[in-house]
Amino acid sequence: MTKRRLIAALIALVLTIAVTGMWSAATIEREGDPDANAIEDSGSSAGVSEQKKGGNRVVKVLAAPFKAFGRLFGHNGDRKIERMTEKDAEKFASVGVTRVDDARTVDAKKLVSTTAKEHLAAGREYLMSGRINEAVTELSTAASLDPKLTEAHNLLGVAYDQKGLAERAQDSYKRAIQVEPEDPETLNNLGFSFYQNGNYRAAVDRLKRAARLAPTDERILNNLGLALCRLGKFDEAYKSFARATGPLTGNINMARMLERFGREDDAIKYYEAARQIDSNNTFALRRLADLYDRVGKPVESQSARTALSSLASGASAVSFEK
Q1: What is the pLDDT along the chain (322 residues), one digit of tens a residue?
Q2: How far apart are CA 25 and CA 155, in angstroms?
Q3: Which DSSP letter does residue 104 get?
Q4: CA of residue 93 relative to chain centroid, distance
Q5: Of 31, 50, 72, 30, nearest to 186 (Cα)?
Q6: Using CA atoms, how far apart are residues 291 and 271, in angstroms rounded to an integer?
Q7: How far apart are the first and last CA of the chain?
Q8: pTM of the predicted model as reported, rounded to 2 decimal places
């Protein structure tokens, strides 16, 4: 009986951890670039375009409870993001391919092309599910079998970036661009890779090219805004953020970045601009209340808090009436 109770208690504990992990996945899975995460919190898209069949946010959410489960029993929960060494990467990158030069072997060439696409599909799925080593293997094979398969090079770059191998990632993106010079998705990924590794001028150059090719792409425009912020070109950065998501979110994203730089007074100006557009924006009001406190303006801080309280009271009244 005691053994059964212990097993039941253990199962209950595991289920509790799993449910908690599902609801708190946003905090557990805080991977990626901190600047991109900051503006994604406001509902904006930023970062790399990993695959053309949709993002992997759902995969990350579903993975959270199982990572917690693994940590409970001593499993290395960070295994997914273990760094690949250059020696490991050499093994993945050196996939041998037998060339077919006989003009009579058209069917064989078609078979190679088909096989490359199959490896690409497998690599894409591995990348979406976070199995980065397997993704590198499959995508390297696809790129070797068909060097003109742009997406294989592009996704291989994403995989290498996730492994911390920036030079290899950028080489893969550049190979994709050699084949397809006007692919905005690959230019975006290369630009964001430069951005993450502190090469902001190169990032702006590639992201501007991508933005010219895809002038309404939210992700590209937000990445460009991030890179321009890092160069101190705040007016240009705001214009890029505003083009991406409109003036309201553009002001909020600009303010969030300025907060990250410790420029509270400048951040306040952008939050106030957002407040002018939407006086009921609770996020802007909360940040204004805190920032005004920090810069020693208690009257303005109290004004923002009063506006927040008024909004909360109004929401409660509406809820009560219903």
Answers
A1: 565 655 555 554 544 444 344 334 433 445 678 888 888 887 888 888 755 544 433 333 333 333 333 333 333 444 344 444 555 445 444 443 333 344 444 454 455 556 889 999 999 999 999 999 999 999 999 999 999 999 999 999 999 999 999 999 999 999 999 999 999 999 999 999 999 999 999 999 999 999 999 999 999 999 999 999 999 999 999 999 999 999 999 999 999 999 999 999 999 999 999 999 999 999 999 999 999 999 999 999 999 999 999 888 765 444 434 4
A2: 25
A3: T
A4: 25
A5: 50
A6: 10
A7: 51
A8: 0.71
Would you kindly state where each structural domain of the chain is located, as residue ranges? 83-96+104-181, 246-313
The label of the residue with tokens 């053309």 reads 52
Distance from C-alpha of 23 to C-alpha of 91, rounded to nearest angstrom: 39
Radius of gyration of the chain measured on its C-alpha atoms: 24
Tell me, yes or no, if the two domains 83-96+104-181 and 246-313 fold the same way.
Answer: yes
Residue 40: both structure tokens together = 């994604």
* The residue to which tokens 């990350």 are assigned: 60
Helices (H), 146-281: 150-162, 166-179, 184-196, 200-213, 218-230, 234-245, 247-260, 264-277
> Under CATH, to which class is 83-96+104-181 assigned?
mainly alpha
Q: How far is Cα 117 from Cα 299, in angstroms, rounded to an integer? A: 63
Alpha carbon 122 to its chain centroid, in Å, reads: 21
In terms of Cα–Cα distance, which of 259, 309, 253 is closest to 43?
A: 253
> Widest CA span of the chain, in angstroms?
83
Q: How far apart are CA 145 and CA 129, in angstroms?
A: 23
Q: Look up residue 214 and give its DSSP letter.
A: S
- What are 188's two structure tokens? 């975006």
CATH code: domain 246-313 is: 1.25.40.10
The phi, psi pair for 186, rounded to 5°, reads -70, -40
Residues 6+ apart with CB under 8 A from 263: none
CA dihedral 311, 315, 316, 317 (to 10 degrees): 100
